[in-house]
Amino acid sequence: MRASSRLVRNCTLGLLLTSLIPAGLLVADRFNPPDLHRAEQAALLVQARDHTLLDGHTSRDGFWRLPVESQEVDLTYITLLMMTEDHRFESHPGVDPQALARAIWQLAQRGHIVSGGSTLAMQTSRLLTPHRHTWGGKLRDILRALQLEWRFGRRGVLNLYLTLAPEGTNIEGIRAASLLYFGHEPSHLTPTEAAVLVTLPRRPAALRPDRHPDALLSAALRTLQRATSLRPVAWPTPDTRGVPHDAPELAGHFLSAGRNGVVVTTLDARLQRNARQVLASHPAPLRGTFAALIVDHERQIVAWVGGAEHKAPGNAIDAVLAPRSPGSTLKPFVYGMAFEKGWMTPHTRVLDSRLAIGGYAPKDFDHAFRGEATVSEALQLSLNVPAIQALERVGPSRFMERLSACGVRLRLPENPDGTQSTPSLAIVLGGAGISLYELTMLYAALDHDGHVAPLHREPTGLKSADPAPEIALLSSRANADIRTILRGTAPPAGVASWEGVAFKTGTSYGNRDGWAMASTPQATVGVWAGRPDGTASPGLTGRDTAGPVLAVLLSLLSSSPHTSAPPASAQPHRAIAVLSPALRTLQQRQAPQIIFPRNHSEIESRSSEGTMLPVGLEGSGGHPPYHWYINGIPLDVPPGAQPSWTPDAPGFAHITLADAQNAHATIDIRIR
C-alpha cells in the first residue's frame, strides 16, 4: 500500500513537472524573446530585366543581407552544410549533447579546443546577438538555441542561419553572397559554389574572397573532400567587385518607398550603362547636368538617368521627376487638339506676326517673325504666335484638363499671395511645370495611336493578365498628322537623317531648361539639360544642347533586343485642294491691336537731364497701313519708319490706332 501511494505521488510529481517545464519555457520566451532585429533588416538590390545587378544599398545596419528560406537554396548546399556543421540537425532539440560531450572531452585531453560542438541553432543564436567566445556566452547560446528551436522549429532556425551566415566583408546570408559573388540566386549552386558558401562562415575574416582568395578556395576544397564525394568542376574566384551604381535614382526611389530585398526592374542593363556614359561624356551646361528617359514600345522604362552622376548644385533631386518649364515641347499636343476639333489642319496657313491676346504679346525664340506659313511649318520651326492662336481656340483650361485625365498634371506658378494662378495662353510656351517622366508619357502616345498609358519601371506580368490602362489624348487622325509633321523636323546638327523619328525640342524662358524629345516605332526618348537648382545657363538650348545627346541615345537603340516594334504607318495629310476655304487660312483678327504700350501701363519717359524721351508704338492686325492719334491729334509718321511719340510733359495720354478700313483700337497710359 505504501509502495502504491509512493508510485502515485511520483507519477503526480512527474505530470506536474511535465506541465510546468513547457509553462516555464513559455514564460521565459514571453519575457525574454530572441532579438530578431538583425534578421529583419534587409538590404536592397536593384536588377535589370535580365537580372543583371545594377545598383543597391545596404541594410540600415550596413550589411548586404537578404532574407531567404531553405526551400529557395540548392539542396547541394543544404546537404553539405548539414554534413559539415550539424549532421544530427534533424534529431536534436537545438543542442547536440553528444557533440558537446565530445568537445569537452577533447578540450580536457589536449588543452585546447578541437571541435566546438555548436549546432546550427547555437550558431544562429550567436549571429542574432554577436558576442565573444566565453563560457558564459556558450551557456547563453545553449539556452537560446533551445528557445529558437522551440519557438521557430528546425526550418525556422535554418532560415535564420541562411539569412545571417557571415560570408566575408559586410556580406551576410546565402542569398546576398550568391548574388554578389556568383551573380545568381542560390537556388542553383555548383558543388564548388556550395563549398565556398559553407566554408566562409567558419573564418570569414581569414578567408575573405577579396583578400585571401587562394586560402578560401583551398579550404572549400577540403570541405568538399571531407564531407562528400562530389568533385569540383571548376574553381572560379568569387567576384569581389561589389555592387555597381548604375541606377542610383531608381535605387533611391525604392529606398524612400521602404522597399528592400531584390527588386527586378524593366531596365535594359546595356542601355542603362551606355546612357549614363553618354550623358557623363557630353559637356553639360554651365555647372549643370543632363537627364534622360528611354521607354520601349511596351511603355517599359529601359533607361533612367536622373543626373546624379554629375556634381551640380541641387543634384539631390532626380531630374527625371522634377517639374520644369517645358518650353515649346507641349505645342504638338495643342495643335493635335485643334486638328481634332476641325479648327485647323497641317496645311492651314497662319500668320506669324506681332499679336496681343489679353495683354499677352508673345515673340518667337529669335525675336523675329516669319510671316505666313503652314501649320506644319509653324510646328517644325516652333513658331510661337501660331501656337498661341491654336491654344486660344482649344482653351488653356480645357487643354490642362485633357492632360490631367491622362495622368499628366501641369504645375502652374503661384501668385504672390500663395494661391495658384489660373491657366493662361503662356502654357504652350512653357508657362507651367512638367517632368521629363510625364513629357515622355505624352510623346510615347505618338506611336500608340494617340493613347497615353503609365510607364512601367517594374515588370507587370503577362499583358493579357495585367493590361495597362490607356486613355485617348488625341484622335487617331490628329495623332497621325502630328506624328508626320514632327517626322519632318530637321534633326540636330551633324545628323544626316533619321527615318521614322518624330522630333521636337524646347527651350524655357531664360535658358533654364533645354529639352529634346523623340518618338519612334521602337522607343521614345526624352532628354533634359539644365541646372538642377533652376539657375539660367547662358547659351543653353534644346536643339543645340539636348538634341545632340538625344541623337546619340537613339543610335544606341538599333542593336537593343528590347526596343523593336513594327513601324507605325502614318496616314497622309488631307490635301489642300479638298479643304474648305475656312480651313485654308486661319482667320485673323479683323480689328487692329496696339501691341505696345499696354493699356493702363505707366511709362518712365524722362531722361536724367529732365527732357522727355520718345515712346515707341507698335500695332498689329486689321488692315494696314495704320494711322496713330495721340489725344485725338494725328501723329506724323514718315513712310517706312517705326512709329514713336515724344510726350510734351508727364501726365495721361489717350492713344488710338486706326487701320485702312477705319477700324480702331484705343488705350490709356500714364507718362511719368
UniProtKB/TrEMBL annotation:
The keyword Transferase applies. Residues 293-510 form the Penicillin-binding protein transpeptidase domain. GO terms for biological process: peptidoglycan biosynthetic process; proteolysis. One of its GO terms (molecular function) is penicillin binding. The keyword Transferase applies. Keywords: Carboxypeptidase, Glycosyltransferase, Hydrolase, Multifunctional enzyme, Protease, Transferase. GO terms for cellular component: outer membrane-bounded periplasmic space. Gene3D superfamilies: Biosynthetic peptidoglycan transglycosylase-like, DD-peptidase/beta-lactamase superfamily. Residues 585-665 form the Penicillin-binding C-terminal domain. SUPFAM superfamilies: beta-lactamase/transpeptidase-like (SSF56601), Lysozyme-like (SSF53955). This is peptidoglycan glycosyltransferase. It comes from Acetobacter ghanensis.
